[in-house]
Amino acid sequence: NDGNNEYVFLILDFVPGQSLTNQLLFESPVERRANFFSQLIDILVELRQTSFPALGSLMPRTDTGPPVVGDLRSIPLNELRRTVPPTTSVREYMESQLQIVSDTLAAPVADQGIDDMKLEAFAVHFMEKDLIDASPDDEENGYSLYHSDLRLANIIVNDELEINGIIDWDDASTVPKQLFSPPPWISGVDNQSFMALHLHAEFRGILLAKSKTNSICGELLKQWYAETNGEPNKALYVAHIIRYPTELAEIVARLHKRLGLIAKFGV
C-alpha cells in the first residue's frame, strides 16, 4: 500500500517437470506406473494425517503462524458465488453440501428436458440420506486437508513419471474422513472411462500392497474398497457428487446398476 493504491502480489515457485497426461501415464512401463501410484498414495497418506480443528478452506494468517480454517471455497461454490462458514459439525457440513448440490442443479440449463429434470430430482432424493449421513457424534478429532482438484494436469512429473509436485491448491479444504478420497480419475467411480477400466486395478493393487506395512493405507483401503470384488464403496460416490454436483444423475445411475436396484437405467 503506497498510500493511494493497494497492490496484490502472487508468489509463485517453479516446479520442474511436466503436467501428467493420459498418454504419458498409459505409455509408461508398468514399473513406472507402479512407482507413480505408490508416490501418489504416499501424498494422500500425508494429507490424511494432517489435522485441523474445523471444516473449511485454509486461509493465511495476518502474522507468521500456520494457516487458519476460514470460509469454505470450492468450484461449485464459486459457480454459485457464495461461501460457507467453517464448522466443527460433520452433519452441518454435509447438510450444507446437500444444499450446494440442490442449488447447483436448480440453476437453469439451456435445452434441459423434463425427463432430465425428473432424473435429477430423483437422484437428489436417492442420495439425500448419504449426503447428510455423519459419524455418531457429528464431530471428529481433527479434519484432514484435501486437494479438491487433483486432476492429471495438476500433477507435475519428470521423465521417469516421478512426482515433482502438486499445483493448484487455491481451493484446498479440510473434509470429514468419509469424504477423503482418491482423485476421481482413478477412484473407480467413473467406471466408463478408459482410465478406470485399465488403471484402477493397478492403483488398488498398489494400495493393497502398501496396506500390509502402513496402517493408514489399510484404513484408506477399507474406507474406499471394502467390497471383495474391488468395487468402490458408496462413500466414494458421495465424495464425487459433492465435488461435481452436475454429474449427480449419472453417478446415481451407476450406483443403481451396481447395487442391482434396477436392471437398466439410462442416462
From TrEMBL:
InterPro entries: AGP_Transferase (IPR051678), Aminoglycoside_PTrfase (IPR002575), Kinase-like_dom_sf (IPR011009). Residues 3-173 form the Aminoglycoside phosphotransferase domain. Pfam families: APH. It comes from the Eukaryota. PANTHER family: AMINOGLYCOSIDE PHOSPHOTRANSFERASE DOMAIN-CONTAINING PROTEIN, AMINOGLYCOSIDE PHOSPHOTRANSFERASE-RELATED-RELATED. This is Aminoglycoside phosphotransferase domain-containing protein. It comes from Photinus pyralis (Common eastern firefly).
